Amino acid sequence: MNRLLVAGKLLAAVFWGVILVNLVEPLAQPFAALLNLACGIVLLIHCVELWLFADRIGDCRQPGLARAQVLLFGVFYALTLPRAPAAQALPEGESLAAEGAYGAQAQSAPLID
């Protein structure tokens, strides 16, 4: 798995290098336009990944650096982030569904007609 992530990061770095070259010295048409379109799509996907992995990024020591690396490498970096701690289990017999959307106190409040 680690080799796959490193290979993906290398391919992502090559992709961004080609994008930079295209910005400085545009390639022949239609390749320049297609590369610009691919750049926009990849950036959009990486922004979605920022949203999906926001809890993991928030747990990092340097969240700004983690955000930049997710924008550059996408899921190849996001999968290396530490997992968020698991939610604590409820005691036996209790459930969130029993409380409903407004909590236990809202159920005991009298109704006004």
Helix content: 55-70%
- Cα-based radius of gyration, to the nearest Å: 23 Å
Oligomer: single chain
First-last Cα distance: 62 Å
Instruction: Give the overall shape, derived from the CA principal axes.
Output: elongated
Number of strands: 0
In N-to-C order, the SSE pattern is HHHHHHH
The tally of domains stands at: 1
Your description of this structure?
This protein has 113 residues and is an all-alpha fold. It has one domain. It is built from 7 helices and no strands. It has helices at 2-24, 31-52, 54-58, 63-73, 75-78, 96-99, 104-108. The longest helix has 23 residues, at 2-24. The N and C termini lie far apart (62 Å). The model has no long low-confidence stretch (mean pLDDT 80).
Name its key features.
113 residues, mainly alpha, 7 helices, 0% strand
Short description:
The protein has 113 residues and is mostly helical. The protein has 7 helices and no strands. Helices cover 65% and strands 0% of the residues.
Topology overview:
Elements: H1 2-24, H2 31-52, H3 54-58, H4 63-73, H5 75-78, H6 96-99, H7 104-108
Helix pairs in contact: 1-2, 2-4
